[in-house]
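Q: My labmate handed me this sequence with no annotations at all. I'd like to see what the chain might look like in three dimensions before we decide whether it's worth expressing. Could you predict it?
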Amino acid sequence: MGIALAGSSGRDMHIEIEHGASAQETRDAFLTARQTGIGGSDIGAILGVSSFKSAVDVFLAKTAPNPSDAQTELTYWGHAVEPIIARRFSEEHGVELIRPNAIARHPQHDWMVGNLDGIIPGPPAGVLEIKNVSAFGTQAWGANGSDEVPLTYVAQVAWYMAVQSMDYAVIAALFGGNAYREFRVERDLELEQALIRKGHAFWFNHVLTGVAPEPQTPDEAIRLFKQDDGSVLNADDALLECCAQLKDAQARAQCLNDEVERLEVQIKARMGHTARLAYRDQLLATWKTHSARRFNARRLKPRIPICTNSLYSSAKRASFV
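A: Here is what I predict for the chain of 321 residues:
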């Protein structure tokens, strides 16, 4: 059952959860509720600043009939340590947090929802967002007490402040399982309005109409269009030009692959049984015997006098048949 949040002018959405429901059933209920609007973790993806999901991911999550998506190790441990991080915040500030068990909804824009980790009691009340960050992600964050956080989290807490009409948010983060920091983000009404415009356009132009956003990667295109319907699309001039450019790019990529192979064979032939290739004191390449012989072409990049940038960027292309 939803609870009233102190210091909030937002509106809670009632979620029916049977007594004794399993953790998965409870999670499914919240996922179903989140399908009824744009949430804080969605807006960063819609803006293209999230490293966790894309606008296509958000579209599929909102329009998919089954909310029981697979829980990753990352999300599992994020939820598992959340109460521990919340307790640390309470101890640091001597406050008893309000832990919502309902998804909040904006009083005017009912498509704006927020699944808040906590409310800092006022006055003035504020948003608490909890993050469990790997040790590898530390560099993307600023010093303790600053507002230097990844853009996707700026968007997330700005969204929650808009939904709850609160003037500040604190992100309590645990880094690598043993380093605790806090970050404070103040409400920015100009940013808030920009986010609302973006979210409104996505909800009404894509989710409600069922028209997917343009895929940005081959993988997104596959996930959007898993099954063909057997029909034929007649190409217009723009699509015809795309096909011509694709054929040209594929031909150039093949030439570059052939050139890479030719150079690799030439260098390996000169190296023979030697394990390393050097120029003065600089190690250029290694070719050692393990379970297989491997050639490290990246070390040669500064020494190859042909179309170096094109040659190496071609390795990032996606295959398309």
